[in-house]
Design brief:
Layout: H1 3-26, E1 29-30, E2 33-34, H2 41-45, H3 52-61, H4 64-68, E3 73-78, H5 80-84, H6 90-94, H7 100-108, E4 111-113, H8 118-127, E5 132-135, E6 141-145, E7 152-154, E8 160-170, E9 173-178
Helix pairs in contact: 3-7
């Protein structure tokens, strides 16, 4: 094979690889499913195998319509493993109709108004000299420290959560996947 043909094939291979990388960035995988920025928070969450407990809780709390709305919202989305780490029976108790208010309070504590990606969170932390206090939809605050994939949230009870997948853009906001259920 001549050198020009080899050079052209190498260039095409590199171009194809960079195109695939660009697609991966645009549609990150969460829970084994691509997350499309053209879909809303609920549409994407329904496809994530890592967020079935969260989806069940959102349905039980009656928050589906809200999280399908225009937003924008930043959702700090605990994984199934985060829910499983709660004391035995907690989730089963929370999703009962008589506990809807408590469940709604917990879930809305995981939502901050606006579209806060890691750059916006980093800027808020920098402006706060290493910490940012952000008010959640339920009215209470979360404390943020760190940067990017080392972002840590602390709830009002002192529990700490880490962002495990950052900046999952949605049509109505952004999801930051976290490893702990936060408690107001």
């Amino acid at each position: 094979m001549n050198r020009k043909l080899m050079g052209a094939m190498t260039a095409l291979t590199l171009l194809a690889g960079s195109s695939l990388a660009a697609l991966a960035v645009e549609n990150p995988m969460v829970g084994g499913a691509p997350m499309y920025d053209s879909k809303n928070i609920i549409e994407n969450a329904l496809n994530s195998k890592d967020h079935t407990t969260l989806v069940t809780a959102v349905k039980a709390a009656g928050l589906v319509e809200t999280l399908q709305g225009p937003g924008p919202f930043t959702v700090f989305a605990p994984t199934n493993a985060a829910f499983a780490a709660l004391p035995a029976g907690t989730v089963e108790t929370l999703v009962k109709p008589e506990n809807k208010d408590t469940l709604t309070g917990i879930l809305t504590y995981h939502v901050v108004p606006g579209k806060l990606d890691s750059k916006a969170l980093d800027a808020a932390i920098k402006a706060g000299n290493g910490k940012a206090m952000l008010k959640t939809v339920n009215g209470e605050e979360l404390t943020f420290e760190g940067t990017g994939m080392k972002l840590m949230l602390t709830d009002s009870k002192g529990h700490k959560a880490h962002v495990t997948v950052a900046d999952v853009y949605q049509s109505n906001g952004v999801i930051q996947v976290i490893d702990t259920v936060l408690m107001p």
